[in-house]
Amino acid sequence: MSDSHGLTAELADIVNRHHHETDLFIHCGDSELEVGADEIAPFAVVRGNCDFAAFPAERIEEVGGVRLFVTHGHLYGVKTSLLRLSYRAQETGAHVVCFGHSHLAGAEQMNGLLFINPGSIALPRGRKEKTYAVLTIGGGRAHVQFYKVNGQPVPGMERTFSI
């Protein structure tokens, strides 16, 4: 997820809803919560442009042999292009890039990299639904399903990629 901008009950609801099927919870920045906040504790968190400096600007995670590069995106100009973000992800050896900042939900594959922006559970742009994404990895495939903050799948926002 990304760009929750101070919401806390929604974070807990999402963790409770998916904890049984999730190896890793990621927050792509702009939580606007303090580093030690209980609500953010289950997440691998990066710093967004509205966050405290104590969060890292980027992180590398690995799940099922797939390397994920996580950043907010503001340092890479993601509102205009994914090119700089792509270069940085390639430097890290990532297969998947998780980012936020634009509040625009979407998933696309370019040059062998899978880019996932979960949108925002607080202030969505481009569509009315407040969204987060669940990534399922297995058998050389990455399945991305977007959900509304209430846990309902977003119609038409489900994709599967080869990785």
Automatic annotation (TrEMBL):
Q: Which UniProt keywords apply?
A: Metal-binding
Q: According to the lineage, what is the superkingdom?
A: Bacteria
Please state every residue range assigned to the domain named Calcineurin-like phosphoesterase.
1-137
- Known cofactor(s): a divalent metal cation
Q: Where is the signal peptide?
A: none
Pfam families according to UniProt? Metallophos_2
Molecular functions per Gene Ontology: hydrolase activity; metal ion binding
Record EC number: 3.1.4.-
Enumerate the NCBIfam families for this protein.
yfcE
Q: Which family does it belong to?
A: Belongs to the metallophosphoesterase superfamily. YfcE family.
> Which PANTHER family does the UniProt record give?
VACUOLAR SORTING PROTEIN VPS29
Q: Mind telling me what this protein is named?
A: Phosphoesterase
